[in-house]
Amino acid sequence: MKNDQQPINKRLRISFSKEGPLRFIGHLDLHHIWQRSIRRAGLPLVYSQGFHPQPKIQLASALALGFSSRAEVVDIWIEENRIQTSDIGEKLQSAVPEGIAILDVQEVELGSPALQTQIVSSEYEVTLLDENPASLINEKLATLMEAESILRPKRVKHKKRKHFTSAPPTYDLRPLILKLVKLPPGKEDNAIRLFMHLSAREGATGRPDEVLAELGIPVEDVRVERTKLIFSE
Amino acid sequence: MLTPQQIEARLERVLLTVQKPGRYVGGEFNAVHKDWDSIQTKVAFLFPDIYDLGVSNVGLKILYDQINQRDDALAERAYLPWLDFEEIMRANEIPLYALESKHPLIDFDIIGISIPYETLYTNTLNALDLAGIPVKSAARGPEHPLIIAGGHTCTNPEPMHAFIDAYVVGEGEEVIHDIVDTVQAYSRFPVDSSQQHNGKTVKRESLLKALAQIPGVYVPSLYKVNYMDDGTIAETIPLVEEAPARVLKRIVAKLPPPPTDFIVPNIKIVHNRATVEVMRGCTRGCRFCHAGFTTRPVRERSVEEVLDAAEKAIASTGFEEVSFLSLSSSDYTGIAELVEAVSERFPDEKMSISLPSLRVESVSVDLMEGLKKHRTAGFTLAPEAATERMRKIINKFITDEQLLDTAREIYSRGWTTIKLYFMIGHPSETLEDVQAIIDLSNKVLAEGRKAIGGKAKLNLGVGTFVPKPQTSFQWVSVDNFEQINTKQNLLKKELGRGIKLAWTDPEDTIIEAFLSRGDRRLADVIYTAWKNGAKFDAWGDQRRYDIWMDAFAEHNLDPTFYTHRQRRVDEIFPWEHISTAVHKKFIFEDYRQSLEGLIRVDCREQCFACGILPIFKDLRRENPGDIWMCPEVKSRKPKTAMQPDELITIN
After folding, report:
1. Which of B34-43, B99-108, B364-373 bottoms out in mean pLDDT, i.e. has the lowest?
2. What pLDDT, in 10s, does the model give residues A181-198?
3. Which of A56, B168, B374, B481 has its CA 20 to 30 A from that of B514?
């Protein structure tokens, strides 16, 4: 059945958590998971125009493989204006795979700027899985925060790498670290927890694994959870 | 053994160091999680290759659904890790575990392994080993799960006889329940603790005997093979009275409702889509086709059932593609109706619908055109052979004109690429027959150029024929390396520009050949090859032909005995005690007709009395009418002795 009138599009902003098995699912796969979840929820996705129409789904910020999050955001465009926004959360919750929890659904202006361009910074909580002497960690944190600049090699794609014959290009990690502190011990265990607030502007994104590398902590020995995405406005 | 919690804790530390960790964590939508402690019987289904290939296995989807419908049983899944993760699992002592509960496989009561092709044999051993289960049946004790296997390799289970406790021959939907019931019956009696080991061993033996009495179940350890002086089989005989002399394949009289709540993978896999099996079996009688011989009779689902299932599957999974499965879509009675209805029922143009295995005729183009809105990129045709002589030999008769007409239609109606599939190595093939593949392919592309110019493309796939057990060509030998190389070199050299050629590595063909045509002595070869590092034999970059040859040498066996030997017409095959319900007499007659270049028409037009009807006459009587594509059988059997074939009335 084709509608003879123009469909009225709606843009929805969904906040969700990503954890459990989905920690090991990458950004592109997550995009695909949303497409299928939205179809299972019976919501008619809007597709882009053109030769290869793509569903209009915008994830705010890529989350590194292995990290969990309680603060992800995705915008989706749907073709209906009859659906109550309150229903949609429930419909989606029953349609997403294990590891996603829908936290909030809001309708936003169709013309508001793309999420990716609005992101300013991200907050993370890092739990060390092994026992570490607190004093050593404190010392490392202090050294790192006192540094004026922390030069780290840029991650360069393989294809481009051959163009650089001399030293690989570097970037300064230090200004991307807005805050880095040890959190007070939790009630359940004595594990050491760190709080990181890192810049997440386009072209100036601080990565928790880079900070951990600078602290000398292997990424397999921690759990990283994104706790907040901070947008402009 | 480790608990699920211990396994998860170890996984946490290592998963980020492997490629695609999403393969190893489960959590897919529609995965079934049941309460482990309150369920009596636990079944793990294993596909012995990586997740990316295993999730779409249709047989396991059906069985997973069947078992999880029961309140007293649960089914979970496991796949083989890729090399990087295997190394880590072994180093960290992580046993192979099921994705749903993370219980190690050894905790399950039954492990059901799908083995659709022979190059999974070494992987099967590797999977058992990774699970901490002895790979040889004889070494398994009371603490180990029952290892069952099924899939297309079941028509010659002998090379794997030493590793599989029980093989399911034929279709699994009903027999899997019989197996679970039997295992439950045998686990109800607690074992006397004073003689625990002995007691349980005895129990395992009696369980195997009970399983052997289930129609369609073959328990290899209950049989013995005697050989002739020349190395061929003298006889395969049951060792106990519970084991039948011949194991007849199991079929379902009517296809049960198809599964629709498919597992939706979180990562990219092959065949990432919903499937609906529209029909099982094929009436064409192509002489090379293993599936054509072993999946008889043809049973169809109604168009309505197919459409409902597709609709349910899409709603339940969110997949963007549905594939209607059968061995020959064009032969499905309701095909035109189905294609027409698809557009009405699935108005979403983003949904793609695929219809594999279409015949070489312009009607196929009409069918694909009907799905145009939903269509996927390519158009595949499988003429299999390029000369009239060869087509008569293999009983797949089409004319060059038919192929060229169809190609013209395809190119002129908007497709730019055609994929043609041929085989080399058919019986009595000459280089002229191979040259004909080249000439015909060039002609097909020329049609494309005429219709749409330089945009026209042709992809040519040329496989190498392996004569399979239980088919009309089971007597013939496989081409040797020299023959294969000569034919492939001719193809590579002579093919015109604009044609992309894909072929099968000759080593792949030879490994497939001895594994599919072998006898029980192959089990030692498989074991040694696996011990020495053979695995992922289906992966071109992993295959180790040298290891296989060394294993043959170690056991004083000659691979050419299995591959390049024309078998005597009175030879007893290693698979003689496994029956697909097609009479050997019929198969031999068909082979002889092949030698004379005689073709047999589609058996929907005329019943050739292959054996299916007399053997399954009771099932047929219970299911009269159009579901089966076989003739009706008379309502009641006369008392007087009659030849089985006379019971058939032909429509």
Report:
1. B364-373
2. 999 887 777 889 999 999
3. B168
Q: Which residue has the higher pLDDT, B376 or B524?
A: B524
Residue in B25, B32, B322 to test binding to A, most A beta-carbons within 10 Å: B25
pLDDT of residue A5: 56
Strands B457-464 and B499-503: parallel
What mean pLDDT comes out for the span A134-140? 90
> Residue B492: how many CB atoms within 10 A of its CB?
11
What's the whole-model pTM score? Answer: 0.94
Question: Mean per-residue pLDDT for B152-165?
Answer: 98
Residues B187-245 pLDDT 10s: 755 444 444 444 455 688 899 999 999 999 999 999 999 999 999 999 999 999 999 99
Segment B440-458 mean pLDDT? 95
Of B17, B26, B315, the CB nearest to A21: B26
Phi-psi region of A144 (alpha: psi -120 to 50; beta: other; left: phi over 0): alpha
At B585, list the tokens.
Answer: 């007499």
User: What is the distance between the alpha carbons of residues B402 and B356, in angstroms, rounded to a whole number?
Assistant: 19
Quote the pLDDT of residue B590: 97
The mean pLDDT of chain B is 93
- Residue B323 CA to residue B269 CA, distance in Å, equals 15
d(CA B47, CA B54): 5
Provide the 10 A C-beta neighbour count for residue B559. Answer: 19
Question: Locate tokens 């599919």: which residue?
Answer: B516
The answer to whether the CB of B205 falls within 8 A of the CB of B211 is no
Residue B297: cis peptide before it, omega within 30 degrees of 0: yes
Q: Where are the beta strands (DSSP E) in B181-254?
A: 217-218, 223-227, 233-238, 247-248
Instruction: Return the number of CB contacts < 8 Å for A and B.
Output: 78
Domain boundaries, chain A: 10-112, 118-231
Cβ atoms of B422 and B428 within 8 Å: the answer is no
Contacts within 8 Å (CB) and 24+ apart, B361-365? B361/B330, B361/B398, B361/B402, B361/B406, B362/B405, B362/B406, B362/B409, B363/B330, B364/B330, B364/B406, B365/B406, B365/B409, B365/B410, B365/B413
For the domain spanning A10-112, the CATH number is: 3.30.70.580
Provide the pLDDT for residue B550: 98
- For residues B45 and B125, give the distance between their C-alpha atoms in angstroms, rounded to a whole number: 15
Residue pair B261/B65 in contact (Cβ under 8 Å)? The answer is yes
Q: What is the per-residue pLDDT for B197?
A: 45
Closest CA to B643 of B601, B620, B611: B611
CATH of domain A118-231: 3.30.70
In chain B, residues with a C-beta closer than 8 Å to the C-beta of A25 are 22, 266-267
Same fold, A10-112 and A118-231: yes
* B555 has pLDDT over 90: yes
Reported confidence tier of residue A165, pLDDT bands at 50, 70, 90: low
> How would you label B239-263 residue by residue, b for 16+ Cβ within 10 Å and e otherwise?
eeeebbeebbbbbbbebeebbbbbb
Question: Mean pLDDT over residues A29-39, rounded?
Answer: 97
Query: What is the CATH code of the structural domain delimited by B4-248?
Result: 3.40.50.280
Please tell me if residue B27 touches chain A, with a CB cutoff of 8 Å: yes
Q: Which of B77, B59, B75 is nearest to B67 (CA)?
A: B75
Q: Do B22 and A29 touch (CB under 8 A)?
A: yes
Asked if A22 is an interface residue toward chain B (Cβ–Cβ < 8 A), one would say yes
How many Å apart are CA A24 and CA A1, to the nearest integer? Answer: 40
Query: How many whole angstroms separate alpha carbon A126 and alpha carbon A193?
Result: 5
Q: What is the residue-wise DSSP string for A44-74?
A: -B-B-SSSS--B-EEESS---TT-EEEEEEE
| B74 confidence band (pLDDT: 50, 70, 90) | very high
Query: Beta strand A222-231 with A119-128: parallel, antiparallel or unpaired?
Result: antiparallel
What order do you get walking across the sheet with B274-277 strand by strand?
Answer: B274-277, B321-325, B352-354
Among B359, B353, B404, B409, which residue's Cα sits nearest to residue B381? B359
